[in-house]
Write a structure and sequence with these properties.
Length: 277
């Protein structure tokens, strides 16, 4: 198992595209910072949208989590799974005495570690660039919370925010992994994965418009319906959990159901040798 992990790790890092993703982090953060600097000119420091050094890492990931991070997950998994299938590299693995389910587990762990390292790098770069570009204020206002946070409390909030963001990316990874596993080409895997991502993004807006249009009193929690979307959890759910402590059990249940379902499906498929031969 360890040697198989090293093999997958080396294969992924031997791709120039993996290193390029990490090199793009400072640029992504810099342009995100420029956006918030312009926004700050029309906001008061008491506004939760006002960005300072202490809350910039959270603001930076809020801006990029839906697209940049999810696209990164799609990119890494398609390269690791579908491209390997198409190039028949998987057959070279299957002729060795290796438990087939181990292939899936190792591939998934490798991807998750890369995503984790990407998040850590993003967090550190955010603090560095934020220190240079943004002012420091002692009382930080956050969404869905009436109280303000000091620097230490904001640091803890940031760690929690990135931790839950990581969980959402792990969950998204299982879905993309399943799509990449059953897809017969890189184009199909990429197109379907991006389509699923766009569906998750559009779904909350569609639900909100739909219930406004029918104008029928229905005993449903619209926020819960919208947070059936992983991207809505990334966009709104994390802030709600940390700011108001509401919906935490619901959100984690949704993430677990997605994770367990697609992880189980992937494990089952990878246990079928005939699928790849």
């Amino acid at each position: 198992m360890y040697k198989l992990f090293l093999c997958e790790w080396q294969k992924l890092w031997n791709k120039k595209s993996t290193l390029l993703c990490f090199l793009c982090i400072p640029l992504i953060i810099f342009f995100t910072a420029q956006y918030y600097l312009k926004t700050n000119t029309i906001l008061k420091p008491t506004n939760p949208e006002f960005t300072s050094f202490y809350n910039f890492p959270v603001a930076a990931i809020q801006e990029q989590l839906l697209f940049s991070f999810n696209i990164l997950v799609i990119f890494l998994i398609v390269l690791s799974v579908t491209e390997e299938y198409k190039s028949k590299q998987i057959r070279m693995i299957l002729i060795r005495p290796i438990n087939l389910s181990d292939i899936f587990i190792v591939k998934y762990i490798t991807i998750i570690i890369i995503v984790f390292l990407f998040l850590i790098t993003y967090l550190l770069c955010s603090y560095f660039i934020g220190y240079i570009l943004f002012s420091k204020i002692n009382k930080i206002k956050i969404f869905y919370c009436n109280n303000t946070l000091n620097a230490n409390q904001m640091l803890l909030y940031t760690i929690k925010y990135y931790s839950i963001s990581f969980l959402t990316l792990c969950t998204m990874s299982t879905i993309i992994f399943f799509i990449s596993t059953i897809s017969k080409s890189v184009v199909i895997a990429s197109g379907t994965s991006i389509g699923i991502l766009m569906f998750f993004i559009i779904y909350p807006t569609f639900i909100e418009i739909f219930f406004r249009f029918i104008k029928t009193p229905i005993n449903l929690n619209l926020i819960k319906l919208k947070m059936l979307s992983i991207t809505q959890i990334q966009f709104e759910g994390i802030a709600r959990i940390l700011g108001s402590k509401n919906y935490s059990s619901y959100v984690f249940t949704i993430l677990f159901v997605y994770f367990f379902t697609f992880f189980s499906l992937c494990y089952y498929i990878y246990s079928k040798k005939d699928y790849y031969i």
